[in-house]
Prior knowledge:
Layout: H1 2-24, H2 26-39, H3 60-85, E1 91-99, E2 102-108, H4 110-133, H5 143-162, H6 166-184, H7 191-222, H8 227-232, H9 237-255, H10 264-270, H11 273-299, H12 304-326, H13 331-358, H14 362-397, H15 408-411, H16 413-426, H17 433-446, H18 455-487, H19 494-497, H20 506-523, H21 525-531, H22 533-540, H23 567-586, H24 614-617, H25 619-624, E3 629-639, E4 647-658, H26 659-679, H27 687-705
Antiparallel strand pairs: 1-2, 3-4
Helix pairs in contact: 1-3, 1-5, 3-4, 3-5, 4-5, 4-11, 4-14, 4-20, 5-6, 5-11, 6-7, 7-9, 7-10, 9-11, 10-11, 10-13, 11-13, 11-14, 12-13, 12-18, 13-14, 13-17, 13-18, 14-16, 14-17, 14-20, 16-18, 16-20, 17-18, 17-20
Amino acid sequence: MTLLLAYASVAAALSSGLLALLGEHRAAWTGPALQVAKLVRIPVPLRPTPAVGPHRRLPHAWRRMVFALLTASGVSALGAGLLQLHADAAVSGQLPFGLPWLHWHVRLDTLSAFFLVVLGLGVIAAGVYGPGYTRQFAGQYSFGALGLFTGSFVAGMEGVLIADDAYLFVIAWEAMTVSSYFLVVYQHEHASHRRAAFLYLLMGEVGAIAIILAFGILAAVSHSFAFDAWRDAHVTPAWGTAAFLLALAGFGMKAGLVPLHAWLPEAHPAAPAHVSGLMSGVMLKIAVYGLLRFAFDLLGDVQWYWGAIVLGLGTGSAALGILYAVVQSDLKRLLAYSSIENMGIVFMGLGLCMVFIGKGHVQLGLIGLVAALYHVLNHSLFKNLLFLAAGSVVHQTHRHDLEHMGGLIKRMPVTAGLFLAGSVAIAGLPPLNGFVSEWLTFQAALQAASVIDNGILRSMVSVAAAILAFTAAVAAACFVKLYGVAFLGQPRERRSAHAHEVSHSGMLWAPAMLAGLCLLLGVLPTWVLDAMRPITRQLLGETLTSASARGWLWLTPGGVSTASYSAPLVLLAMALAWWLLRRLERRGPAADVRRAPAWDCGFGGLSPRMQYTAAAFAQPVRRIFAPVWETVETSTPETAAANPLQVTALSYRLEIGDRSWRWLYLPLTRVVEDLARQTARIQTGQVRIYIAYSFMTLIVLLGVVS
């Protein structure tokens, strides 16, 4: 049953893409259909649709059907995941595809089921949001291409989750990567979008090579491409470590870990909003799934020093990701950098889990694993919510830059409220879900001091906990800046002043559903942890029994003697405090509501230029952590024509660059260019020389195979 639902999900996703492509080119098939209808004398109300502009304009009903199929794909994936989480055993099968000696094996267990739930929720939100959002592309961009590659993108991610052999896994992984490349370059007339798409594809393929090499090690040991054979194979610690490092490089590049993150802040802002939500909310989690599957399931024997490496990468990604985010003025670019921070938090939890497992402390390792999985689910919800709400803002204001926004809370009140919910969740504030998973990560780190005997490792975990606290504080400041500059104050531009709430209800219902789930997962964390027990039992052979030792009201990951948290009581206390303040406010005749102009500090009238800008808000952080960025500030005075000494205006420009380009990517580029020039010497232009090269390559390959 669960595999059938998974198959149905893949089929619905692919069908949505084919329907979009068929709808765009329907004039090509409705014409012959009319001719056939005339021959057989059947009245058919089909008419060829003339082209409008460079692309045919689809009826809105057809667009809704495409996204309805995409939503059905999400519902099927969600149903398959939820059912399998409560199943007694994994289900597997074999598809009649592939090569005669290399079939496609599929398997659905609790780990893939959990990520199917994550994927299903994201796809449902995209399917509900898409019809209204994509109307702006009508007649300008190909909806057939958008629908086709969105469907294949979703199907590729689903294929990765159900694959049970290296062959199908790599095919699905490449389908996911290539499809998302075309989605990033969808608005292809922008040179920045083409550059972002090429960078994404290049780094994605480099990561895929690393994954294939990691798979090759296990395939060489087991003499099979099937994951079942890999689970039973014995891999030496040296080869296991080599395979793990290759897998970490490949999956870490797709997850956007620093310093392999350069593609992420370029690609996510370039894609349409609902695609950005899928890439950040779902695709990054597929990389986490890949690493979990490889390290915990296929390799099995987790080493503590693997965890130390993962913990270091996660800590650095969390700190640098949020520091880069807080200085951004582009709305979607800020959200993209914050995804790096949140993936860093996920990998911190995974690193702590590996350290504890390698040292023999399974229950503490379970806390780290549960924290990582919980943050995977949480980030998929609130980041998807934020990207969809940001898409509505950009859709109405036609601006990405925060410096051109302001006052949107009065013009887009529902979107502003939903964006506030997402901001509170991603800032890690109670009672929403972001607080719970970050708190669990803290608990895992804080309990390391009493059980880890290695002084260097213990110090490393303590530093990671301190940096996690630092990132939480900077994240709160970052989203205070974003929300305050974009939604509060006065409009900084005419387009912001004339913005209004989105008219399509789906563009409100999709983020509203995600906001409700953020609240639900924040208030009832013990229920979520209970649902994760089958996953931890599959991966580690145990469950976190102490998480709800004091009942469903209290979250006690380390037992009743350690720190605990009650989200329902926190929510109740906040509601009572709000009610009490409202009562005090309305007591007596002096409590009448009066409206008056805001105090202008004696300036005689407020103007948008008096407000804090996004750059000014982040200036203290930028000054303190100046070595982190490549910063270029230029001030250009403008003088009066009659008097060159009289300065009439001063223009200020701030450019913030990523140091990883100068320290890593540009040197690598020069090395590759030098190697290419050296390799070019073998290009003789003589066919007989090329035949000799092919013959020598064949001899070498035959020697390797024999």
